[in-house]
Amino acid sequence: MKIIEYGNICYSSGTAIILTLWSLVIENTNMQSYKSLYSKKSEEFEDIFLRATKVRQNGGPNELCVEKDAYQIHKDNYLFKEQNPVQQKKVIQAQKILSYIVEQLSAIGAPATMMFGTMLHELRNGTGHCVIPRVDDKDFDIAVFERHFEVVANMKDDILQKFGWEVTRPHNPENPGAHFLFIHPPKQRVGKGFQIDVYGFKCDKMNQLIFFDWDRDALRMQDFLPLMPYKTVPVPDTDTDHLRKNQHLEEIPAFSMPYNVPCIAASLYGPNYMQPAEKGSYFLNKQGYVAANGYDACRNKDLSSIEMQERIRQQSFCQAEDLNVVATTAEFWRKWKKQIIRREKRRRKQRRGVRNLISTSAMVKVEKKHNIGIVACVK
């Protein structure tokens, strides 16, 4: 029999291997438990999402959110219950700020879309009437056209006065002028607690791409535009009867989503985007426009007349100056690919090291003295 020390206790080698593997499972408990709030397959999730985002004949959103659902639904959310009261208040305050931003942009006809991790969370779990942030996350991502990004940036004083949160636009000397800001409680460190991340994107008309200049991510324009009304901001309960009866949902400001969300998700996160990645293996494909060519979800779709009109309207929001993302960002993407390759090599090496550790480390022989087993555990 071989002996191994695990947590200052001696076990047989087989038991130790099981415990080691079990500890790896425990580390990812939060991620695995959040894999879905519903027991549905990926295809069913996509079907639910596509039904929910189907544009109404009048071009309005398909889901009406009331304040009761928006702010009290957390009471039934086990993830929300697990958070401390400070985090809970931050999430609810962030919801109110997001609604304010969407309302202000809607007044000038500007869409604000959920993006990146927030879009992915909504695709996996967003089957309710309201947009509910993931409370065990650290941020809520939205994206707007470049010209509307400055509108959000200019809300700085209003947001501080109305909600007590600050607007910070970080400066990256290697990427000056990039369109990104975050809205956060005062004195909160970046990435801690909860914050709102706002991205501005540009249009590459030459290559028909959408470009996020902060992270330098590029997507196909045909998959991204038009940004479609998705779920309304929370409205007072007293107004819902009138709105539902007369179907005037287009009168209410709404969160938007990209035109083909399953395609965008696959382009950015790969074909297994419905399954949360393991801790430390997060990956976002910056050349999503290239990856899109390999997915069935990204096949060209026929736009309805309303969708076509909305795409043309939103393309008018694109910046005036010409942009060739493929040419100007080629060198950055080349270096990025090298970094990805090096990271994967390190990860494979670490996995081999873990396997070797499980099979060989800390094992000693059992010495017998006077027919009594004496076990010595060493590191």
Report on this structure.
With 379 residues, this protein is α+β, with helices and mostly antiparallel strands. The chain is 42% helix and 16% strand. The chain contains 16 helices and 14 strands. It has helices spanning 13-27, 29-33, 42-52, 67-72, 78-82, 85-106, 116-125, 146-153, 156-163, 221-224, 240-246, 261-269, 288-291, 305-315, 325-328, 330-360, and strands at residues 3-6, 9-12, 113-114, 139-145, 166-168, 180-184, 195-204, 209-212, 217-220, 228-232, 254-257, 363-364, 367-369, 372-374. Strands 3, 4, 5, 6, 7, 8 and 9 form a seven-stranded mixed sheet that branches. Strand 13 (367-369) and strand 14 (372-374) form a beta hairpin. The longest helix has 31 residues, at 330-360. It is globular and about 60 Å long. The protein starts with a strand and ends in a 5-residue tail after the last strand.
SSE layout:
Blueprint: E1 3-6, E2 9-12, H1 13-27, H2 29-33, H3 42-52, H4 67-72, H5 78-82, H6 85-106, E3 113-114, H7 116-125, E4 139-145, H8 146-153, H9 156-163, E5 166-168, E6 180-184, E7 195-204, E8 209-212, E9 217-220, H10 221-224, E10 228-232, H11 240-246, E11 254-257, H12 261-269, H13 288-291, H14 305-315, H15 325-328, H16 330-360, E12 363-364, E13 367-369, E14 372-374
Parallel strand pairs: 4-7
Antiparallel strand pairs: 1-2, 1-12, 3-4, 5-6, 6-7, 7-8, 8-9, 10-11, 13-14
Helix pairs in contact: 7-12
